[in-house]
Amino acid sequence: MTRLIKEPLVHFVLLAVVIFGLYHFVTSSRQSADRTIVITQADLERLASLYAVEAGALPTEQDMRAIVTDQIQQEALAREARRLGMAEDDTVVQRRLAQKMTFMLSDLGQVDAPSDDVLEAWLQDNRTRFERPARFSFDHVFFSAADDPRIGDVLASLNGAGDAEWRALGDPFMLQRRYADLPDREIVRLFGGQFAEQLTGLPGNDASWQGPLSSALGTHLVRITRREDARMPSLAEIRSAVLQDWSEHEQRQRSAEEIRSIVDKYEIVIEGPASN
Fold it and tell me: Across the strands, what pairs with 219?
C-alpha cells in the first residue's frame, strides 16, 4: 500500500480527480447562478416607478404581476440569446446598445440656462433658422393658356364696375382661388418660382387686380389683399424657441464630447487597403 501511494501515476490521478472536482463545483455554481433570475425589491420599485411615469398612476397588484412576468421573460430570453451567441457580431444588438449609451449620455444633466446676451448672439448667428418669411394673401383668376384673348378684357372688368363674380371668371382651377397668409416657400411649392418672384415684385396691396402672372400651372390675374415682408423677429418674441434651439445644440455638443472621450479609451486598428 505504501509503495502504491508513492507511485507518481497515483499522484497524477489523485490530482486530476481534485482538479475535476473543483472544476465541477465552480461550473455548477456558475451554471446555477446563470439559471437563476433574481427580481430584487429595488427592481420592483424601479419597475413600478417606470409604470407610474408612463401610465400616470401606480400599478395595481395585477399590473405588477404582469410587469414582473414580462421582466422575467425578457431576462430569460436575453440570457438564452447570449448563450446561443446571438449577441456576438450582431449589428442590430450593437446598434441598440450604442443607442442606449447615447441616450444615457444625453441625460447626464440639464444645461445651465444661458443669459439673454448668449441667446441674442445665438439668434444672430442662426438668423436663417428664425427669420420669418414673406407672406401673402391673394385672390387669383386662372387661365390655362397664356394667349387667352379674354385676359385683357377680364382684367379691365375686374378693375372697373365691380368684381363680385370674379370667382366665376377664367378657367376652372384645381386648387383654391383665394389664399390667406401663405409663406413664400409655400407659394413656390404650389405655383413655382417664377410666379412667386413675379408676385413679390407686384406693387402694394391696394386691392387692385394685376397681371397677368405666369406659373407652372398657367396664367393668373392676381389681387394682393395682404402682404407681410420677411423680417427678423426680436429675441423677446421668440425667446422660448431660441432657448430650445440653443439648449439642444449644447446637449448635442456635450454628448459628442462624452462619446469622443469614450472612443479615446480604445486603440483603433483599421485593417485593409485604407490602412496602408
Answer: 143, 214
